User: What shape does this take?
Amino acid sequence: MTQTVNSACSYCGTGCGIRLETDGQRIISLSGNEQHPTNRGKLCSKGRELHHTVRTHDRLLRPQIRTSLSQAFAPVDWDTALDHSAQRFADIIKEHGPGAVAFYVSGQLLTEDYYAFNKLMKGFIGRNNIDTNSRLCMSSAVAAYKRAFGADGPPTCYADIELAESFFIIGANPAYAHPIVFRRLEAAKEANPDLKIVVADPRRTDTCSIADLHLPLKAGTDVALLQAMLNVMVWEDLIDQSYIEQHTQGFDSILKNTQAMTPRKAATICDLKAADIVQAALWFAENKTLSFWCQGMNQSTAAVDKNNALIHLHLATGQVGKAGCGPFSLTGQANAMGGREVGGLSNMLAAHREINNPQHRAEVAQHWGVERIHDQVGLTATELFGALEKGSVKAVWIACTNPMVSLPDAKRTKAALEKAELVIVSDAYHPTDTTQFAHVLFPAAGWAEKEGTISNSERCITHLQQALPAAGLSRPDWKITTDFAVSLGQKLGKDWSDSFAYQKAEDIFSEHCALTQGKDLDIAGLSYAILDQHGPQQWPFPKGQIPNQAQRLYSDGLFETTDKKARFIDVKYRPVAEATDEEYPLSLTTGRIRDQWHTMTKTAHVPALMQHYAIPQLQIHPNDAKAYKIKEEQLVRISSRRGEVIAPAKISDDIRQGLVFLPMHWGEMSAKKGQVNHLTMIAVDPISKQPEFKHTAVNLECFKPAWCGMMLMAGAKLSLGREMIQGYTYGVVACAGSDHPVTAIELACTKPLQTKQYKRLDQLLEQGQSFETLSYSERKQGINRKAWLHDGRLVAVRWIGGDIQEAKWLRKLMLEGRDVGELRPYLLAPGGPVEKQDTKGKIICACNNVGELDLKSAIKNGANSLEKLKACTLAGTGCGSCVPEMKGLLKN
Ligand code: SF4
Assistant: This one.
């Protein structure tokens, strides 16, 4: 019997609603929830494919333990796993104190999971050493809201998108990172072409496709730009003096520094035109302006100041708490906001309480029935891994996140995990780059297999109903945590069973709601029943609240400070932490690409999502490419003071000269030498402790391998790819194709392959089966190629030597799943048939499999508008994520 349940997308902070149809064991169909206020039925390319990430070949299905990293894991039952890990945690606590253990959790957890982890660490273990990967994503926005408004209260809502007259987008690329928010922006612009859109970003991203003005500022100079904009507003008398006087404090104290930052001075610092800065300021102040920002502002050593400098523009023009305007920080992960609500950061307590506030600590202690909450803030993400490396923290439980890929300075993360006495990882997948360093693996239920809530960027809480039974022995994170808590209590001679005796997720939700009563995020009136009956609800939702009412915060001009006034903060422009110099003359920035999510543990399972960008590429300006003699697609060695990465060049004037870009997603498992965090540094904002990812000083040189090669295998076998690239200098794994997935591994090696390495490669490609084979070699040219066929179809290829571009048609042949027929003589030889020409190019539209060359050809043949291009290629008629790129092609 089929059943339909409501859920929400587990990727970005947009928080789109999803409907899942299941037969009780499998998801039969997935669609956008038409009733959900965020997406109204739409989903982006990632959300549409989410069901493919649930029952994958690498699901972690049972608990596993080992005593050292050199041993293999042994599967065990839950009782053994919990008993073993609780005993080891307890032993460490007894010997070294509770400060020697820590949790590192995730914005992908549901609010109920988050709450349980926090309660265990802060209430019962008795230290505050729990931090979350949200530290890397929005802790600077949290700190800035608190400085400005007295609380972490984002004032705006999505409904403001349709009411705004102008948008100021800085350090955000919603076209890639928050596509459904961007679809709403596109629709607003289409409905009102007079709407002004300014995008401030060192790169001309797809978000610029709807911009009236692009400010390609130099990386890290945001404060100078924002101060100069405020200066213009003051000079032009566009500020709201009465709002400033009645509802704010500190405006006079920032005037001196603000007025010193003239548009001309900022133009020099930011490398912009002064007239453009003036124009951006005028549009901002003369219209109802909604500003969006994300990691471009947050991941920086001056991030909190940048955030406050932007909030100043809204306070000075009285654009807070009103329809169609306000500062709107976009949250990165699906439940980053929920983590903030339960106090997931190491300096926070539940319901926007602070660890360094004695009354807040007493309130939480009373709610949890414990004597006290420790008064020292816990270790932040980078501090925690530093403490593991030094040995002051000896045990860590990592939940639902992959720090081996996501933390800056990967070498340091590896050293920290290797030094740890105990690493517990709870995850839905294994292996990941992080599970390799675990002593204990707890199998966690996947997104569709558990119940709970998430909160999106606009403070809107969605109830996720359970669609499927948990796979194997996996359990919801809150259940693993509470079972562990009871066991740990016993080992420590305490009875914590009553405090963690939850029967279901809603028991935790109710306890969380009660703890918010009387606070700015009061949701004491909320329940799963209300969410199911009335749909997602924004906070606050106090007792007696009528559903679907709450929208903006601070509409009455009263803030959460002691005198109810918002604060201006005297910020100053500070240059980036690691200056470029002769040795490392370029600046590297990192970010997302459209069809991948975080460290790819989910999206890499979806062949359709591997086609837009199959491998990490280095975006570089043509002048820089010329200076370094780098050609398109040529391999480049990018080095910093910490390590190196090798990636093919993508030459484009969409990036500033002097700046290069690498995507954040690939780890060593998916691209042996393509992990950007081998380059980044541990430099954090002094207030939020959020690390810098938007500037690293780097150098470049062409990478000249002894040979290049490509391995192709039918099927999506990322784990096999990982085994193959061990020991090679450079390897990139990519899966592609929906009906006939292909795993493609590109290799570039500095040493010739030995006979035993050829044998090993062939064994892996054959996978123990006996196929028909074809071979081709030219010893002098270093060419040694082999193909495996089954029923006339290619099932594997080993292509060593010569031009690997010539091998790419074989991948296409495999993706099509067709008989090689008359192409057989050409398969491995140089040259090859005419039809090997790639007629699609890079896949732009993942929904309808439309390539860049298809679109260019249609444009050449007269499809000179977006509508015509859509009609004749079908690109852009699915989720719409490719529309900005289609517009870019039309423009060019
Ligand atoms: Fe999921 Fe974000 Fe895409 Fe919505 S916009 S479907 S939440 S990834």
